Amino acid sequence: MKKLFKDIFWIIIIGTFVIMATYYLLKIFDKEFKTAIYIEISIAIIIAFIRMFYKKIIDLFNKIFYKGYEYKKEYDDKEIRLSFAYLIRIRINNKYLLIKSKRDKYQPVGGVYHIDDKAKINDKFGFYRDSNPGDANDIRGNILGRNIKKFIKWFNKKTEREITPDREFREELIASELLPSEIFSELNFSYFDTFYKGVNHDNFYNTLQLLRLDIFDFIPTKEQERYLANLDFKNKKIKANLYLATNDEIKRLGVSEANDKQIFGTQTPFILEGFKNE
Known about the structure:
37% of the residues lie in helices and 22% in strands. It is an alpha+beta fold. Strands 1, 5, 6, 7, 8 and 9 form a six-stranded mixed β-sheet that branches. Strands 2, 3, 4 and 10 form a four-stranded antiparallel β-sheet that branches.
């Protein structure tokens, strides 16, 4: 977030300088050049500015609007697999609480958003749920490329779909009895950021895929905070299913000198502050 504000600051500063320079150039040459020449000077300066800072401007645009999603015209008539999910960042004493997935990798608590009425969404965008395991109303399915932008606009309106991450928190941590329901009956979350991965070829599904991840912070009550800080990792069930990971461990996906195998899911680093989506 700090880098985003820094980029905006420098673009404003440089833009202001260019405008002022253009204004004074027009004043200096006022008696020697006609209006057409003034316009040409202004355009030349603007083009130079855009060329100098093209990448920064594009990066900034992506951060604000798409968080890494770049659409190409060639996708128009291709089927793209969408998977729109959320991850919950649970921080305990400068570490992150992760849960073991079905693929035997530790990752943040979270899952795929649900649609209220999949038939209605199919009629609107031609989106249909694929045959992979999961809930029938998961936003995990296929759509023609030309309809992706319309789908994202609909999704961002937060209507006709699940909008909070509490369902997966309850299913993965409370219903599984990893956390007590009496202490975690009240759940509060704060939105952190959104990232897109893709469009790229997914080897597991052998198709083009666009993955969206919304990151939420779990905001514990004082009682919940105390309970989490004292989680008993000697307990067999907790030890088998939960992991407290440091920032550095997540960056390396659990690979170290003592362990050459990846133990964290590839989506896990998205919860880190300052994560850069390459």
